[in-house]
């Protein structure tokens, strides 16, 4: 599966290269059976890149909404790819059921869901988008502990 490319002004080349790099990693990872811990480590490596990308986007003066949408997109696609690498379809289904219960969507929160949740929490304007960006590279510590990471 080819990751969609997010186009953000002068950031297009960087994200295109990142997409190609992720695609190569995915092809390599899918060719071998992976444990949940191995998939989680791969997922964490991908997600931690969002923080550096955000610093670059800020330097390029991209608006908060654009940065938030891009960060959410990278996290979302990485989530889906990690699930595709998991050996156990039953465990993938458990994650999908959890996401339905938590977000109303088997593939995790939509961008719109996050915006509404943060509005309901009292955030406004750019604070909403900054919170989405910050959340895009934070992961569930409990899952990491259970997998020994």
Concise account of the structure shown:
With 149 residues, this protein is mainly α. 72% of the residues lie in helices and 0% in strands.
| End-to-end C-alpha gap | 27 Å
Shape summary: globular
Oligomer: single chain
Helix-residue proportion:
over 70%
Secondary-structure element string: HHHHHHH
- What is the count of structural domains? 1
Number of strand segments? 0
List unreliable stretches of 5+ residues: 1-5
Q: What's the gyration radius in Å?
A: 16 Å
Number of helices: 7
Biggest sheet, in brief?
Answer: none
Helices and strands: which structural class?
mainly alpha
Averaged pLDDT: 84
Measured by DSSP, the beta-strand proportion falls in: under 5%
Task: Summarize the topology.
Blueprint: H1 12-30, H2 36-59, H3 64-85, H4 89-103, H5 111-120, H6 125-136, H7 141-146
Helix pairs in contact: 2-3, 3-6, 5-6
Task: Describe the 3D structure.
The protein has 149 residues and is mostly helical. It has one domain (10-146). Helices cover 72% and strands 0% of the residues. The protein contains 7 helices and no strands. Helix 2 runs antiparallel to helix 3. The model is unreliable at 1-5 (pLDDT under 50).
């Amino acid at each position: 599966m080819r990751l969609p490319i997010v186009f953000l002004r002068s950031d297009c080349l960087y994200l295109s290269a990142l997409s190609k790099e992720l695609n190569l990693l995915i092809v390599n990872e899918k060719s071998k059976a992976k444990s949940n811990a191995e998939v989680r480590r791969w997922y964490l490596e991908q997600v931690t890149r969002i923080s550096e990308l955000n610093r670059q986007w800020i330097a390029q003066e991209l608006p908060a909404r654009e940065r938030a949408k891009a960060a959410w997109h990278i996290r979302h696609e990485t989530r889906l790819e990690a699930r595709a690498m998991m050996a156990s379809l039953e465990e993938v289904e458990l994650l999908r059921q959890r996401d339905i219960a938590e977000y109303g969507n088997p593939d995790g929160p939509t961008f719109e869901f996050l915006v509404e949740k943060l509005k309901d929490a009292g955030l406004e304007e750019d604070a909403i988008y900054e919170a989405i960006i910050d959340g895009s590279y934070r992961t569930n510590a409990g899952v990491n502990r259970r997998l020994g990471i």
